[in-house]
Amino acid sequence: MKKILVLFLLLSWACLAQGQKILTVDFDEVKKETSDPSSPFFYDTLVNNFLKGDTLSVQELRYLYYGAALQPNGSLRNLSDIGGRHTDFDGYFEKQQFREALSPGLAVLREDPVNIRMSYNMLVCYHELGIRDSAQLFARRYYGLLKAIQSSGDGTTVPTAFVVTRIPDEYDVVREAGFASAGQTLLTPETGHTDKIHLDTAAQEQEPKIPALYFNIEISFITMRQLLEGKIPPPPEKPRSKK
Predict the structure, then answer these.
(1) Which of 43, 130, 147, 227 is most deeply packed, by most CB within 10 A?
(2) Is the residue at 72 inside a domain?
(3) Residue 216 has pLDDT above 80, yes or no
(4) Could you tell me which residues are beta bridge partners of residue 196?
(5) Within a domain: residue 134?
(6) What is the pLDDT of residues 57-99, one digit of tens each?
(7) What total of structural domains would you count in the chain?
(8) Which domain holds residue 219?
(9) pTM (2 decimals)?
(10) Is residue 240 part of a domain?
């Protein structure tokens, strides 16, 4: 099974071997700009401004969101939420213990500042606690990152798919667009692996109804291949807390 997966990922890489340009997102250019300390799109500068709550342009948000996938260990985060990092937060959040959820939630975002789902969850926590300034801060982060994705396409066809760096982001885009997911299909067109999110048309009031949205997830397959080849080191094991 592993050999089949490796072959599958090698084949998926072949179409992008000459350069990592995925639809409207030129990852080679993103890498160049976010790695250059003299660039206005230097990743560390963008992250610092983002965390301070500065208003970033859509272009800056694009470099921030897509640049995060190219940072050390950024690829690992794109594959999934690794190692149960959100366990403490999820436990508190599900019980609506919002104040207790703040510390583990902020810890996740210190490690992964472009985590869209966690930004939304922190917005909910601060809103429920009545801490308005912090709720507004995380609203700016959350909607800003969604703008970055929305700037990559319109999502209505495979060639104009939204480009995402991690699969959970698809569902945040769907939700904020006011749609409900009714299933998912993985497509493999020449433009790269694409998730087709089927929408619940019965719940849509507008006409014409939109049957599906498309999300290009090719960058996740590229980083998965790099992980299997050992180009990306595995994350260090965290010491288990004593009970």
Answers:
(1) 43
(2) yes
(3) yes
(4) 185, 214
(5) yes
(6) 999 999 999 999 888 766 555 544 443 456 789 999 999 999 9
(7) 1
(8) 2-10+19-79+86-228
(9) 0.82
(10) no
